[in-house]
Amino acid sequence: MGHRDHRRAGPSSVSCAVVTISDSRSAATDTSGRFICEALRKAGHRLADYRILKDDARRIVAHLRRMSSRGEARIALLTGGTGIGRNDVTCEALEGLLEKRLDGFGELFRVLSYRQVGSAAMLSRAMAGIYRGMFIFAMPGSEKAVRLAMRRLILPEISHFVGLLEG
Question: Would you list the DSSP string of 99-122?
């Protein structure tokens, strides 16, 4: 079966969780998280969970483990903590958790980002992978980066991702 067939065969509505990782954002200032939630709703997907977590690897891992054990979300969309700042720990948290990495997500994100911001794209550590049947995507915290990742990479393939896991 080709990728178009997998897309068509996948579920039309997927249960997703959104996690903003930040020491400074609140529900009022989390434009990236709000964009993801709204984009998912507009595309017909279900929002199983939305929260803001501090930049703390143990909290990130614990939350993803809880979500996985509950089986409420097939896809977890994380925004924030993927840069190179002292407090950016999202990638470190995921490295020990992911069972399979999807290196193509980060690679394609940086290519697309390069077209927008130039060589600064190399500073992004956006990544994705699978943990206990749940796809996890870690995106930068900027709304512009989130819009790029969601519109160009994630939303077009959500049904495909889940269809592959279920098939």
Answer: SEE-HHHHHHHHHHHHHHHGGGGG
Question: Fold for domain 23-166?
Answer: Molybdenum Cofactor Biosythetic Enzyme; Chain A (3.40.980)
Give pTM, 2 decimals: 0.94
- The C-alpha atoms of residue 125 and residue 143 are separated, in whole angstroms, by 16
pLDDT in tens, 73-112: 999 999 999 999 999 999 999 999 999 999 999 999 999 9
Q: Using CA atoms, how far apart are residues 157 and 149, in angstroms rounded to an integer?
A: 11
Place of tokens 């984009």: 39
Entry field: residues in the chain: 167
161-to-36, 46, 77, 96, 102 alpha-carbon distances in Å? 17, 15, 13, 22, 11
Q: Does 147 score more than 90 pLDDT?
A: yes
